[in-house]
Amino acid sequence: MSQTVQPSPGPPRATPGPNSYTTLRAGADFRHELVIKRSRFITVLRRVDEEPSARTLVAELRKEFYDARHHCSAFVIGPGRDLQRSNDDGEPSGTAGTPMLDALVKRETRAGDGVHSADLSDVCAVVVRYFGGILLGAGGLVRAYSESVSKALELAPLVSRDRLKLFTVAVPHAAAGRLENDLRSAGYLMTGNNYDALNTHVGLAIADDDLIINTAVERLAALSAGRCTLATTGTDWVDSEL
């Protein structure tokens, strides 16, 4: 390798949208409870990627909280947030499911570059209500259900989910270690290597964005004195901390 470039903080962040969105960190459900005028509002958030999974959460909570009066729900699914549903479960029409869904779709996430984006998806919210004996009225119910989901989202662990293009770079074995370290230092996600008789095929993932990929091509050309090129191998979705 004949030259290197100074490492940067990392590749530019992909523009939020179909190639990038915010979701819950993978793992256990997140729970949060509010008490409003003696009524208990228990919010459960689960990461889901299909409608049956969202409906499974509702069914599970109906069994767990079998003596609760209401199990209201809302979910938004897909990178483009194309699937959105809500259910009032016996509350007056429009006082529970709709404000819950609004809290999901209007939730703004502050990215590392300071941009605020309403791009939350693949999340199901269920609010279990135990009636406390005091009527809240339509406006009170809207505020209670909206606040229940909003407060839970403020505390829940969220991540950025980015669609990445997968590439390999063929480089002679003796130069592979240096190239891999330079790419890693520049902020690129390394995905592992494969080998043949002549070359190491260094794997990396780059945000599925033409500008970001072109930047990577230019960086690779500088790192390898123009001898190495990117070869596309597919795409994948990857979570990263916000």
Describe this structure in words.
This protein is α+β, with helices and mostly antiparallel strands and 242 residues long. Helices cover 29% and strands 36% of the residues. The protein has five helices and twelve strands. The protein has helices at 51-64, 97-105, 137-155, 173-185, 210-224; strands spanning 20-24, 30-36, 39-47, 70-77, 83-87, 109-110, 116-117, 123-130, 158-172, 189-195, 199-207, 231-241. The strands form three sheets. Strands 1, 9, 10, 11 and 12 form a five-stranded antiparallel sheet that branches. It has a five-stranded antiparallel sheet with strand order 2-3-8-4-5, sandwiched between helices. A hairpin with a 5-residue loop joins strand 6 and strand 7. Helix 2 (97-105) packs parallel to helix 3 (137-155). It is elongated. The two termini are 34 Å apart.
